[in-house]
Amino acid sequence: MITKPGFNDIFMNLATDLAKRSHCVKAQVGAVLTKDTRIISIGYNGPPSGTHNCDEEWPETGCARDSKGSCSLALHAEENAILYATKNGARLEGATLYTTLSPCLPCARLIYSAGVTKVYYKHSYAKYKGLPSDEGVDFLSRFGVDVVLMEDPS
Fold first, then answer.
1. For 76-95, what is the mean pLDDT?
2. At CA 145, angle to CA 139 and CA 146, rounded to 5?
3. Which residue range or ranges hold the CMP/dCMP-type deaminase domain (predicted)?
4. CA 100 to CA 47: how far, in whole Å?
5. Which domains, ranges and CATH numbers included, belong to the chain?
6. What is the pTM of this model?
7. E-assigned strands of 8-151?
8. Which comes out higher in pLDDT, residue 48 or 137?
């Protein structure tokens, strides 16, 4: 009997592969939005299309940081996936998001507002940023979004 990978593994593997498309020199993050085992949209962190590429303009340091130490010029992977989906008329109510890094608080607010009801993530944003807790995960959980730390499918 042939063993087939589950959709969770397939979508998280795709998010992991998408992260490799990022031009960020600090962190590479990928995201996949799905609904009923179908892909709605994909995204990875980086600047708005047509602006610049951090790894080309600032290969040593990356772009300027904001007051919290985050990239001041890029969109997060979740933002890119949600923006592309809505730009193209996709309905996100009840969608599932797969992301390689748990959502930051601003992304969590966007995810909740978009109607996403489940989020799978591979790594902790809090651990990456040295924060005491995953504020985005806490926010989503508080307001009824199912958030799951997914074991590395590789």
1. 95
2. 115
3. 6-146
4. 18
5. 7-149 (3.40.140.10)
6. 0.90
7. 30-35, 38-44, 96-101, 118-123, 146-149
8. 137
11's tokens? 């979508």
Q: Check residue 87 and give its pLDDT.
A: 93
Give pLDDT tens digits for 25-59.
888 999 999 999 999 999 999 888 787 777 776 77
CA–CA distance from 2 to each of 5, 6, 13 (Å)?
A: 10, 12, 19
Residue among 46, 43, 21 nearest 32 (CA)? 43
For residues 88 and 108, the answer to whether their CB atoms sit within 8 Å is no
pLDDT, mean of residues 105-128 = 95
**Residue ranges of E strands in the chain:** 30-35, 38-44, 96-101, 118-123, 146-149
What separation in angstroms does the CA of 39 have from each of 69, 96, 106, 116, 126?
Answer: 32, 9, 23, 13, 27
Catalytic residue numbers read: 78
pLDDT at 68: 66
Query: The tokens 């601003």 sit on which residue?
Result: 106
